[in-house]
Specification:
Strand content: under 5%
Number of domains: 1
Shape: globular
Radius of gyration: 18 Å
Largest sheet: none
Order of helices and strands: HHHHHHHHHHHH
Oligomer: single chain
Number of helices: 12
Mean pLDDT: 83
Length: 288
Amino acid sequence: MPPRLGVLLAIVFWGISFVATRAVVEQISPVALIFARAALGSLLLIAILTARGRAWWPSRKFWPPLLLMGFIGVALHGLLQAYALQLTSAVNSGWLIGLTPVWSAILAALHLRERFPPRKLLGLALGFLGAVLVVTRGQFGASVLALPATRGDLMILASTVNWAVYSVIGHPTLKALGSLVATTCALLVGWFLLALPFLYSRSWGDYARLDAVGWGSVLFLGICCSGLGYLWWYGALEKIEASRVAALLYLEPLVTLGAAMALLGESVGVTTIVGGLLLIGGVALVER
């Protein structure tokens, strides 16, 4: 598959993932969903590496950072978003997830002690303003924080920071092991970590409540989003400049918007659209 087509499909999968997650958490618990998603994704990537004849079990020195990556980037990240989507809409989640590159830029600047030029500072300001509009829907005041949807939006915001931290701390391991092997191991570690709350809450009984749409959504999230999405994304990064690949992430909120309106019938207010566009514009300035 051409690398650019693979990246585009990954973005489409990830954009629709918020819609699929929103549909599934109405039937089963977030723990049951993320456990199944991590299981399907890691097993698929292991099968692909095995078919290619590549070793995927790293030496012992890599397991401490992989343990941290599995906890932050798989278990915690997945649970944050799944619980959030019980409280907020897929549309809002799609807009807010666009802030991830901004946090990554801030962390990289702090880590490398780079100075932000005025253009990036303007981008940060626009991005935060857009996020505030999406979260509050223009209803400024302390009472808005009591709304269930707002708490869900704040959890999505926390997940964007969480993913940026995962990207920074995981970079040395990704570089040393190769992105596909490191991602496979991180998914596998996250799966084992999720087994603890899964067994404690006896979440295996949740799967009996899934209907055909629910099962299809779980399979889509595990195989397409966690498995093939990562495979195609990192495969493209090996052949195309990272900046060109990352630029396509700006399409993800638009994919989520279209999918949520078409599949879930979610309505979108003017304030949310304006906030989302400001957010994307701010991120574009930071990443330009």
